[in-house]
Prior knowledge:
Blueprint: H1 8-13, H2 30-44, E1 62-63, E2 72-73, E3 83-88, E4 94-100, E5 103-110, H3 121-127, E6 131-136, H4 153-166, E7 172-177, H5 179-190, E8 195-201, H6 209-222, H7 227-238, H8 246-254, H9 258-272, H10 275-280, E9 286-290, H11 299-305, E10 309-313, H12 321-324, H13 326-340
Parallel strand pairs: 5-6, 5-7, 7-8, 8-9, 9-10
Antiparallel strand pairs: 1-2, 3-4, 4-6
Helix pairs in contact: 4-5, 6-7, 6-9, 7-8
Amino acid sequence: xxxxxxxxxxxxxxxxxxxxxxxxxxxxxxxxxxxxxxxxxxxxxxxxxxxxxxxxxxxxxxxxxxxxxxxxxxxxxxxxxxxxxxxxxxxxxxxxxxxxxxxxxxxxxxxxxxxxxxxxxxxxxxxxxxxxxxxxxxxxxxxxxxxxxxxxxxxxxxxxxxxxxxxxxxxxxxxxxxxxxxxxxxxxxxxxxxxxxxxxxxxxxxxxxxxxxxxxxxxxxxxxxxxxxxxxxxxxxxxxxxxxxxxxxxxxxxxxxxxxxxxxxxxxxxxxxxxxxxxxxxxxxxxxxxxxxxxxxxxxxxxxxxxxxxxxxxxxxxxxxxxxxxxxxxxxxxxxxxxxxxx
Length: 343
């Protein structure tokens, strides 16, 4: 059997006919293969009868996907083994993460609110082919543990520092999506010895006035009994009509409890008031990747505070470009590191 990577569904949705990386072909991991395929079915929301699973001999190097999709071909290069691990933070919360790759510098991937590590799996898979890469679930999300109080931007950054110290990671490249970009800035500002570059993707760092007003309206809706309607409205607002990962993002949003969403917005607003002070002490290279779904950062002010800021923009994706157009995101990060980051 051909073994799928955790993020196969993302590459299929991105219409990638060929991947730069292959699979290890281990028959002992057939359950992983099936689980990945079923996750893909869950994302697309396609009916059971529209799918077929075919066992393909290793030498054929092909897989069968839903009838409405093409047959995708893959190379047979060995994918670096990734494994799930856990650490315990200083306050006793277990953090779950995937780790793969060997070379330095290390990459740290940090998801946003209402998400989990799967939202950055295409980047983890891409960069872990060579570099040591860690893709974690923040406390309170995914497979990670929960504390008595919901996490804050400052707490998430402290958790990352715990992780780095326990894994002996220094000078990491931290990549954050959405709220994860705030965490990346907080981490770089408070723990400069642990970071060498930061990448912020669709992140609310220095919210423009219009975006702040929109977020305040969302928070008001989240505090009411129809909070799920507010979340669905938020998804429609930040996604393009053409976004194929929209339903997947909506599903992950709706799985987060109401009070956790309220705490999430409150910590974003509180941290936004500190953003300029945090950015002033960040001297490391920073890449900001915009999407087509909205403006979440006042990039003019950002550039004044951090003259080293580099800005890129994806084409044809709303708020979730890490899943919608991973090839664009990965290429921009790779070029940014090549040109601007001294390793």
